[in-house]
Design goal:
This protein is an all-alpha fold. It has one domain. The protein is about 55% helix and about 5% strand. A two-stranded antiparallel ribbon has the order 1-2. Strand 1 and strand 2 (about 280-285) form a beta hairpin.
Length: about 350
């Protein structure tokens, strides 16, 4: 697997062996997009711990905190100056250290949850030459902080400059448009899911995979710092979903929510554990087994569970042996023409 991709038959003896834990299989889809529609079931999901309690409430509260208390005054952003941009970078770096660093300490250093709801039985990689300093965590931290937080801040700084110069719609104040303001928060994770699927498929195009995405896929077993451990090209593409706010009236709080969900949320979803538990009960949903399957098997589950793009476009792996056989079949079909070339 010279370019980071497994050979055709490798999933049958995948790295890490059997899963330590996984949710009931086959994986269930999000009921928001069920057919025929089930509006009451969809509403129940939108108000559930998995969505309202683990996405909307925590990231909405963090975005509000960032806008009201941690953001330089908008008038300061009318000109690109190092002082306010570095202030934003320091804020974002601090948030990433708290989120990814805190999750790593809790789950991997102090092992406060043991192996409860941990997908892969392995720990983080050490003495592995594919990582900087032969250490997976240090390697992931380097790419996350040096490239990820920098490009995250650059996108936000661009938006703040545009808002300060009245170049973007800035009328979506919560007291004037409360319904649309709230609806925008609800819609952002679904737009991000659509964008992620197609950008992720593009990143698996062989030239882009070799140049950029293979770096992220060195993490066949993930931890909190793996989520934003990417090549700068991938950071630019992945975080570009925030550009939707150029076309639709939003508020800076929506931009912060969007970016923090894509960055700090990536630390959460790559934690390697399904949830943070208290007395055996989930209190915050974290990792997705759907995406954990992608990190192990590569050629499946390009999207995330919020929208069933993989199921709609034939790239779904629901965790069952039947789905695994389909992944192997697709890989053999993809490799067969290359094997026939002189």
């Amino acid at each position: 697997m010279a370019d980071g991709r497994p050979a055709a038959d490798e999933p049958q003896s995948a790295p890490g062996g059997a899963w330590a834990w996984h949710p009931p299989l086959p994986l269930a889809g999000v009921p928001v997009f069920a057919w025929p529609p089930r509006p009451l079931v969809a509403l129940k999901y939108l108000l559930s711990l998995a969505f309202l309690g683990s996405v909307l409430v925590p990231f909405g509260a963090l975005a509000a905190l960032s806008w009201f208390y941690l953001q330089p005054a908008l008038e300061r952003c009318a000109e690109f100056r190092a002082d306010w941009i570095l202030q934003m970078y320091a804020r974002n770096l601090g948030l990433m250290l708290l989120a990814a660093g805190g999750l790593h300490l809790y789950f991997y250093t102090f092992r406060r949850q043991g192996a409860e709801r941990k997908f892969d039985p392995r720990g983080m990689g050490t003495n592995d030459r594919k990582f900087f300093a032969r250490n997976q965590v240090w390697d992931n931290m380097l790419w996350t902080c040096a490239s990820g937080v920098t490009i995250w801040t650059a996108y936000e700084a661009g938006f703040m400059w545009a808002y300060a110069n009245d170049l973007l719609p800035f009328y979506l104040r919560v007291n004037e448009h409360p319904v649309w303001f709230a609806a925008t928060l609800f819609m952002i994770p679904f737009w991000a899911s659509l964008h992620f699927y197609f950008v992720h498929r593009l990143l698996h195009w062989r030239p882009l995979y070799r140049i950029a995405h293979a770096l992220h896929h060195r993490n066949d077993n993930t931890g909190p710092w793996s989520g934003l451990s990417m090549h700068p090209v991938e950071h630019l593409l992945y975080l570009s979903s925030v550009l939707i706010h150029v076309a639709f009236a939003s508020h800076p709080l929506h931009v912060f929510f969007h970016m923090q969900w894509n960055t700090l949320g990536a630390a959460m979803t790559h934690t390697g554990f399904e949830s943070l538990t208290f007395r055996g009960r989930p209190i915050l949903m974290l990792g997705s087994f759907h995406h954990q399957l992608h990190h192990r098997y590569y050629d499946c589950n390009y999207g995330n569970p919020h929208m069933p793009w993989d199921r709609w476009l034939g790239t779904d792996h629901d965790g069952t042996p039947r789905a695994m056989a389909e992944v192997v079949r697709r890989r053999r079909a993809r490799l067969r023409p290359a094997a026939g070339r002189p």
